[in-house]
Batch of 4 targets.
Target 1
Amino acid sequence: MLRKVTPHAVIIIAAMYFVFFFIDRVNSIMNFINNGMTKGLLFALCVLAIYNAVLLIRENRARERQRQRALEQRRRAASQKPGAPRPDRTVAHKS
Amino acid sequence: MTARNRGARARSGVRRDGWLRRQLARRPLPLWVVTAADVLVLVLALLVYALFHHVLPRDEEAAGVVSRRAAAPVVAATQAPESMSGPEASAEPRAADPVGVFAQRFADKFTGGEIIADSEGYQSPSLNIRFQTVTEPELVYYVADIYMRDIECFRTVFAKDDFGRGRYEWLTDMSARLGGVMAVNGDYYGGRADGIVIRNGELYRKKAPIRDVCVIYWDGVMEIISPSEWNTESVMAKGAYQGWNFGPNLLDDGGNALSYFDSEVAGRNPRTAIGYFEPGHYCLVVVDGRSKKSRGATLEKLSEIMAGLGCARAYNLDGGQTSSMVVGNKVVSNPYHGGRKCSDGIVIVDR
């Protein structure tokens, strides 16, 4: 569940920051950027961004490992087939 | 659908859901549903944020430092406005006047006992105020030129008479509570948590300022201090009576207009400013804006106005929809969209 919700939370908090930046450009006196609540949101954004990034890296690595494993299995299957050229052997071209 | 059909469908286990329900039942959810949900949550989050940031009242502890008039020193004759000449140019109170009393300095400005009040001004034994409405192409502004016998005619007031964030009140009500002759909005301290708040001799908030601070001392001298030069202890020791933290400073050291302001709110807007001529002599200026008749003033234009009035120092207060001037119990300026409640005001009282 958390894994599904955090990307949306990141999008929402980041969009809130877009709004704050815009208001701050128009009227900085209202102090929308540099107050306690906004700092808390920034902290939450950092935590969520790191959590998301870690999940993404982990998923990418798992996917890569899976891809490597599949490739390896295909190679092995190909090399066990009788008469089939071994995939890792270079075939010299005869003229 | 008849009851018979519904019964048959229920028995067969087939459900006929609506389109939305079918969309929501899809896994993963359609992109538009996800986007709409995110936007909805974003709007709700912003509303909750605004509620806490801006609407809900929050108590604040006053810093509790008080500068007493009896102990207040005369700030310094060095504060004399350079742009002024003649006998009124000295900021040093005359020997016979105690600190914060300008009876001798402006003896000819006050009446012997009667009060003369009309649309052009107000004159009494303690006050002399001249009101002026200036109309230029696409610009209307109101000037109140104020002489006071005693510095305590210059009062400030919090909305609901309570220091804290998120408290708002109409300027007319705040002025009426103090029995004010006239009033303008202050620096909207309640809309933020930072900066300096000094009111009627008490230091309420002393967070490091990031904008120019305007201070009026018990002896009537007005000073504008940049954040880098700010020192709370020293300012309070010098007898700070009022202090606002909005800005910017509108004039240079010689009382001349500035030609450039590094500010996001430098465009044409309704404005409120306070000007200082000498101790006991000030002006309050309100500029109408965001209308066809008066589009408002840039900070450069406001600086020109204040320099043109002959101010030695001038300081920008909160503007926009807050900007308004009240005389008696009537709003004499034309605030944008009828104005709004504000968190504090400057009230000139007759005492």
Target 2
Amino acid sequence: MTITHGISRGRVEILQFRRDRTAVVFTFAFPALLLLLFGTIFGDSYDQPGVSASHVFSASMIAYGILSTAFVTMGAGLAMDREDGTLKRLHGTPITSTSYVLGKLILVLALSVAEVVVLIAVGVLVFGMSLPDASHWLTFLWLFLLSVVACSLLGMAVSTIVRHARTAGAILNVPVVALQFISGVFIYPPTELPHWLNAVASIFPVKWMAQGFRYVFLPDGMKVNEVAGQWELGRTALVLGAWCVVGLVLCLVTFRWSERDR
Amino acid sequence: MTAIEVSGLRKSYRGHEAVRGIDLTVARGEVFALLGPNGAGKTTTTEILEGHRRRDGGDVRVLGEDPGTAGSAWRARLGIVLQNTDDAADLTVAEMVRHIGGLYPDPRPADEVIELVGLTDKRDTRIRQLSGGQRRRVDVALGIVGRPELLFLDEPTTGFDPEARHRFWDLIKALAAEGTTILLTTHYLDEAETLADRLAVIAAGRIVAEGTPATLGGPETRTVSWDGHTERVTDPTELIRKLVAEDADLSTLTVTRPSLEDTYLRLIGANR
């Protein structure tokens, strides 16, 4: 029952998202637009033959894409559902909170897949980035799933401090933008940043996501530009896994069907 | 068998006591109306019974369970028509009715429900494009799609045109005839009078009167007028017998029962 209800929610969530043209355009076009700008403006080259700044951005921006579809969409969506009565309506039916969250995860997963396809397409078609081999794709798969789940759960948890749905986007974008500056997405290589900022960034998921996607799409030699000089895949899995657990616990503690009593 | 049993229900918001000790019993199959002005505590009471709000004190049993702790199986037996929802604006009427129906174990067919609330010609229209009254009918459709044993209707006909309101009343009568228990809040007195088997008037968080539409406010309120005199009595027969014995001029005699509206206004006025 939980699964069928969750899938039914997921279908309705996707249907509603598709019909909201503004959401579709902004969610998908904005990261792609940034990638086009960054990739065109910055022409740095590295010691590695055939790697340009646009390739680095194409890889790192996948982390941004997932942040915007998972963290922001989830957080803002939940705040909206709380405000427009969706949650209240559902709470009057036999549906469980697990099914509701499952529906949201299905939406976020679908959006994230589409977003990542768009970004990779820009990287490959516009900037001539080459696609990796099968073993790298395997890494991509677990990295992608851990990133989406961690970001979605954290987005849900953060949405509980959002008081009005119309401010949700603004509030949620603060950590998104700040973390991208310190996590090697907008500013690369991250070794250019002060040490303590690197240390702060390594607490949060974004650095590990971006670094992981760079592992997937860049030649192995590019690892010298990372803070540790290594790809650190094991540690990436650990940190993202830990954030999934933290996010889940926060959601279980903070999720409520109705607004707080006035 | 009782559907709803409430005793000593209390609820405060930041020091303001919205509900101050309400007792209420609704039998299975009964249509019960809660009347009262805005801010009297109707919605708070209803939302506590629906499991949407926590209470500060008192005992509540709805279909045998405590709404504060009852789960999914209990919710499957309820239908709830809320006030002020604005959800699912981008879905069509049929999509939303089918979706919500699908969450219940034994739903009514979506098209049947849409027909019942008179929205068949709007079934493929997005909810965003409906008028306020049509939107409200969608709420009603979503409240009854799960074949509820107990239906909560919180000011269900706000924004209805007269024809839609009469159709809605027929629908509620039909549901009641099938045995659905209904708790209705309204500030339309004609609605309460038409639909309710029993009703209670809430003012400032308390129940100030309870009865049938005919007996609300107690039996003392018959007004007898004759020959320029007016007297309010419990037993008009006795008074008239006395007047006959006194050989009074009864050519202008009238005995009136106060309308529900008179009674209501008197009750609300006395409890402001």
Target 3
Amino acid sequence: MSDATAVKVREIRALIARHKRWDIVFGTIGVLSLMIGVLTFTVLFLDMLIDGAPRLTWDFLTSFPSRKPGQAGILSAWVGSTMVMIVTICAAVPLGVGAGVYLEEYAPKNWMTDLIEINVTNLAGVPSIVYGLLALGLFVYQFGLGQSVLTAGLTLALLILPVIIVATREAIRSIPAAIREGSYALGATKWQTAAYHIIPYSLPGILTGVIIGLARAIGETAPIITVGALTFIAFLPPAPLQAEPPFISFEWLLSGFTVMPIQMFNWTSRPEAAFQSNAAAAGVVLLVMTLSMNALAIYIRYRLRKNIKW
Amino acid sequence: MVGTTAPEVSAAAAAGPAPVKKSESRNLNFFYGQFQALKDISMPIYEKKVTALIGPSGCGKSTFMRCFNRMHDLYPGNRYEGQIMLYPDNTDLLNRDVDPIEVRMRISMVFQKPNPFPKSIYENVAYGLRVRGHTRRALVDDKVEEALRSAALWDEVKGRLGDLAFNLSGGQQQRLCIARALATDPEILLFDEPTSALDPIATASIEQLIADLKEKVTILIVTHNMQQAARVSDYTAYMYLGELIEFDVTDTIFIKPKNKQTEDYITGRFG
């Protein structure tokens, strides 16, 4: 190797070493930013877990709230949250998916569609209390649905509708044009293409949107208080399945209710310290509910995506 | 006939029975918004023959082909002028009163990249039948088998019709797409550069298939590969910048083209 080459190689190595310094700098900043998020969450969760651990018993889940902190439970709250979520899913998913499919596959591409598109995206940023006020005027007073599970479910459905619409559209857009054209080229109508291809193939993405929406909805307090959820409730809504005919009852839809975040809020505003650990325990339960919903979604998405490669 | 007549084929074609016109483009203009992509194209498509469209990238050959199944209707801002007649019933495929779905039910298409649906092999082939409302299991089974046999794929997949189409090789996927297009007995089969994503062996099998299929169906094929056009087609059209430069029997186009531009392209001096 000549001297000239040796010098050149040394220069190149020095250059690379100098450039790589920025890799290290950025890597460090990245790890630090990540840690701030992860550590904060971990500390908060552990703190809540330690505070709530003594109250996390089976009795806690199966008891109604009480004036005595040691006997108070979250039965009415988690049952209420579950029922409200069921109404929310039943209302928001068909509406959101329908709107998303329409906007992507059917709507003519003109300024009107663009305007609707921008507004749908903006709706996702409207403060939840505004939805609460809308629901109070519309569902409670106008439609006379009362301060019920149905009202709360529909309110939260409105709240997460834009999230589902946007997720549906993104999922549909990720389907390659060749697949869509392949269907149309065989003489399919728009509806046949949507039903056989577009909707099934975008399900994993839609599901992600639904879960993100539900995770937000289950923790919402403001709009639920606005429509008049109860803060102290010592009974369960009528069961949907009954022993006598007609076996199925929809009375629960119009029943009063409370939800997990309201129960927590109620407890944290009490002066007694014992109620604080109740609130922490309820927080752990709420978090577990959210995380298990996420886990289920990830599993289903994985199953659905196995067959789809593009 | 309206406007200029289609270019007549040279005397070399006279050997054998006179070919029958299956379709004919008459003074076809096509616009993507303001841009005119096709200029006054008139040419015949002969029944049970293979017609190849050749020309450099961007010459409009794919655009021309996609007029035959009204694929351009899927996107806004596209406009046709002129006619594409389908015989023997004299339907103008481009007429506003003719539903593009009707056109696509009569004319099938095979795309550049294999585009099987993420479903089973069986469901891919059966899809065209399902779209037409065929639900009788026995009938669909028969049609699926017949189409897979015609696409020379049956022997390779008969034991695993329930498998996912994505598990097939690229060449097999393309033959599956051909089977899918054949299952509904189309009158014309359009091939849009069907081998450009395939290796030479898979390409050879698709070309063999095209040669076999022309006994049953009229074929229009777009190719960027001149040798392929020479190998598989009976008629060839050379296009350049949205215009039809020359249309003739394939041998004539490749051995003694009448037009200087065609000759330059064929001999590799241009393009």
Target 4
Amino acid sequence: MLDLTTLDAKDTDGKVKQLCRKAIRPHDSLPDLPSVAAVCVYPNFVSTAKEALSGSSVKVAAVATAFPSGMSTLKVKLRETKWAVNQGADEIDMVISRGKFLAGEYDFVSDEIAAVKEECGPAHLKVILETGELSTLDNIRKASDLAMEAGADFIKTSTGKIQPAATLPVTLVMLEAIRDFYYRTGKKIGMKPAGGIATAKLALQYLVMVRETLGQEWLSPDWFRFGASVLANDLLRQIVKEQTGVYQSFDYFTKD
Amino acid sequence: MKKKQKMQKKAEIKSALKINFSTDWKYDPAPESADHIKLEKKYDLFINGKFVAPKKGKYFETINPAKETKLAEVAEGTEEDIDTAVRAARSAYEKIWSKISARERGKYLFRIARIMQEKARELAVIESLDSGKPIRESKTVDIPLAAAHFFYNAGWADKLDYAFPGRKAHSIGVAGQIIPWNFPLLMAAWKIAPALAAGNTVVLKPAETTPLTALKLAEIFQQADLPPGVVNIVTGAGATGAALTRHPDIDKIAFTGSTDIGKLIMKSLVGTNKKYTLELGGKSANIIFEDAALDQAVEGIINGIFFNQGHVCCAGSRLYVQESIAKNLIRKLKDRMETLIVGDPLDKNTDIGAINSKAQLEKIQSYLTIGIEEGAQRFQPACDLPKSGYWCRPTLFTDVAQSHRIAQEEIFGPVLSVQTFRTVEEVIEKANNTPYGLAGGVWTDKGAKVFSITSQIRAGVLWANTYNKFDPTAPFGGYKESGMGREGGVHGLYPYVELAS
């Protein structure tokens, strides 16, 4: 239920390959650990990631639509999306136009999501609301409803570039929106809190929230993902502690 | 025709949608440790600063309602014991408490409050053991709030001239106080703190099923060097309480409990010069308008009725939902009830603990049958219940009419009756159509609506977009058969002073 991410302007093929290696086998001394759910990269690294992950269950997600600001024309966004899908991306992470949303131009935001969804074809669409810029829980609820109606497969809190990123209250509001949408339409939508979830303990609180809001079926990588690369190492540390009885130094866990 | 059938089928599928809360992700037990708790085998009466054996030598058991095991034996106070206690209180009043400076009184109260905070964990565990309430509640509500009442009233002790500007506040003498089993320590604090702050002395009778934290409080009084006789605690059942209200040398009676007993007390006070305050039952309306934040309202409804197993006089036990959102809201409510955890009061995950006593459980169960006989629909989640102990699943009744007994009578358990309404006028009429008038809740996104509606509901406490919020600075008390007088805030000092101009 975890996505590993590298979204730096200084990313290279080498960096992406290393991350993919970790995604397949998170900790070499524990070979039985499952792989992570997906690796999230910029569109130009999709083919690199795809190749590095071939034969594994790990999916490739590409951020598109002028990530992280979303400040570009629809035409550019659509071409970027199409290109990433053609490169082999299994999932597309788009950002909504927050400026337009705050200006009340909901039709614009909705049409944009619908258009991107069409370009995605078979790829899953995650819609990033960038909740840290929406300011109120009312807005977050409104944006969640709007994204789901427009065709999102997943709704995601943040790009990771803006603070605050994912928080418990924001995630609860989005989970409640997903539940109400499910009851209204019968369609299940996935949830991805991203950024700010660094420890296993905090992750557990999120999982409790999912369990108590959406129940059993959402407790799966198909419907719930953590976008938190730092979390991976704390999880590994807890798993090793469970087996050995003592906490290992972080030096024993690879950063990439 | 085909289109219509298709639409109908779609609607059927949608209404059959159900979120599956019976997950394979189970919670491990997370019990609060009770190892550090020291309970005596036998507790005597606390009179004149010392624990003394009851004159008739009788004791009764107090049990843990979650396990049906004995926690301790507690003395049964009789008329003779009450008399000794009242004499001790009178003497302490005349010789010490009315003589020392108001600042000194305040210092004692501050000291008691601080010791309560230091012993908060111990008090919380004992409260949960003795009453059955979840440790989460005793830790976050009962004990901190009890200490807060001492802190708050300690502040008033030397500022009574400012509480009643232009008047001189005199103490009245000896107060006889009888408290219920639902918030044992908190109710003791509600009663004792303002009485002492205003310069009175006290004889307190705790409820027979939950006397332990009051006796622990007696130990705190000893530790705080509170002068002997200022507070006396006489445990026992109804007869002990009756002896206290009858005693001729009591100046004021403060009672919290059922309306039936409240009426008896009121009758027994006729022709005497005793002042009195009564905090009695309730059947409070929790009103949800279509423009409310529904998920928040659901949390408020749950808190309103299932807090402390529904053993709350101001519980929001009548739910009124606007018809336009009723279906949606009730589904949310049922979903939320599926995730409630009923069980071990000492487990930190527990939402609903044990019913306080066997007698109370039987009373609640009789209403569960009455509801069905009256034609209402009953819903209970499929939660597991422990084998021994007194337990009741959280219960929801829909299709309830105003004339049903489950909508009229106080059940004092985790049972919610739901009715719908269409207009503002209708819901105000329904909310007020009750012999009670203790509390109520209104849920709406519009501020103006809040003020317009709360001012038309005849109840002592009204919450807007929240429920069961308590604070020592806020007065609490009822209209009609829910009681007389107020406790808390400046209003709570009134019953303990005589005002001279």
